[in-house]
Design the sequence.
């Protein structure tokens, strides 16, 4: 069974429109209930922050929890496993289902690029080469505002 922490991590990564300063101090179920109760008991508090989603998008959450677990397995960058391909496939599928606002958000782009980079590193046996990796690291550099940074870990690798 997935913990509330796991669901919270996914929601923070996937949902780009979280505005904590506009969050209510309390939730009144008699007027604030925007979603139908779900069988997996994700809960009102988690759903409250996802105003860009409706109940049809909650299937993505389970897939993204699996992706996070794969990311954790592949934390050792020198030993990326075949599971990186599975993570990329799940992220790619979710990317087609997400609203444009979420898909273009910096949080989702970082999450997506991690899957792409892991897959490419697995397929290239850890060698930093190829146009896909070059483009992914370039986009990460822009997302991190690290164009003028000089070294890792602040700036992603530069592929010539």
Sequence:
């Amino acid at each position: 069974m997935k913990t509330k922490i796991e669901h919270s991590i996914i929601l923070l990564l996937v949902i780009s429109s979280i505005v904590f300063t506009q969050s209510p101090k309390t939730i009144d179920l008699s007027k604030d209930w925007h979603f139908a109760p779900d069988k997996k008991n994700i809960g009102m508090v988690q759903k409250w922050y996802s105003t860009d989603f409706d109940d049809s998008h909650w299937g993505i959450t389970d897939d993204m929890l699996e992706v996070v677990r794969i990311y954790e397995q592949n934390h050792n960058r020198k030993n990326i496993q075949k599971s990186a391909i599975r993570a990329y496939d799940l992220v790619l599928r979710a990317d087609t289902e997400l609203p444009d606002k979420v898909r273009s958000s910096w949080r989702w782009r970082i999450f997506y690029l991690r899957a792409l980079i892991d897959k490419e590193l697995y397929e290239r046996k850890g060698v930093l080469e190829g146009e896909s990796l070059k483009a992914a690291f370039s986009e990460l550099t822009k997302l991190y505002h690290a164009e003028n940074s000089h070294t890792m870990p602040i700036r992603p690798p530069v592929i010539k």
Remarks:
- The radius of gyration is 17 Å.
- Residues 16-21 have pLDDT under 50 and may be disordered.
